[in-house]
Specification:
Length: 166
C-alpha cells in the first residue's frame, strides 16, 4: 500500500463521493435521450426501457448496440460510441467508492477504502484491495466529477445536434 499524500477530512471526502454519485446518475440518465433518438421512439418509452435495465452496463450496452444498427449513419455512430466510451472510462473510480467499505485507523491516521470484490486468479483469490483516502484520492474524485460534467454537456450537445427527443 502506497504512503498517503496527505490526510483529508472524511466528511469532506464523503461530500465528494456524493457529488460524484450525483454527477454520475445525472449523466447516466441522459442515456434515455440517446435510446429515444437511436430507437426513434418517444422519451416516455425510452424511460421505461432505461428503468427496466437495472445496471449501467446494460444501459450503455443498449445505446451502443442501437448505434451500431446499419441504419445509423457512421458519423452519428462514432459520436455516440465516443460518448459511451467516455462514460465507461469514469466507471472504475465510481465503482471503487460505491462498492467498498471504509476502514479507520485506531490511532487517528487516514481512513482507507476496502474494495468489496473477489478476483479469482489462476491459483489464488485476491480481495480487500485497500486505497488511502488522502488528498490524491480526493483530487481523483474531483477530476472524475469534472469529466462527468463535460460528458454531460457533450451528450446534451449531441442530443440537440442529432435532433433526439429532449
Amino acid at each position: 500500500m502506497a504512503k498517503p499524500s496527505s490526510p483529508i477530512d472524511f466528511d469532506d471526502f464523503l461530500l465528494l463521493i456524493g457529488k460524484l454519485n450525483y454527477s454520475w446518475t445525472n449523466t447516466e440518465s441522459l442515456l434515455i435521450h440517446l435510446i429515444a433518438g437511436l430507437s426513434k421512439i418517444d422519451k416516455e418509452t425510452a424511460t421505461v426501457i432505461f428503468l427496466t435495465l437495472n445496471t449501467t452496463r446494460a444501459r450503455i450496452d443498449i445505446v451502443e448496440r442501437l448505434s451500431k444498427l446499419d441504419r445509423i449513419p457512421q458519423k452519428e455512430r462514432e459520436r455516440i460510441l465516443s460518448l459511451t466510451k467516455r462514460i465507461q472510462g469514469q466507471s472504475s473510480l465510481r465503482n471503487r467508492y460505491n462498492h467498498c467499505i471504509y476502514a479507520f485507523d485506531s490511532e487517528g491516521g487516514s481512513p482507507h477504502s476496502i474494495l468489496m470484490r473477489i478476483a479469482d486468479r489462476k491459483d489464488r483469490l485476491v480481495m480487500g484491495q485497500m486505497n488511502a483516502l488522502d488528498q490524491a484520492a480526493a483530487e481523483g474524485v474531483e477530476d472524475a466529477v469534472s469529466a462527468l460534467q463535460q460528458i454531460n454537456q457533450d451528450i446534451w450537445q449531441s442530443i440537440r445536434d442529432l435532433s433526439y427527443p429532449q
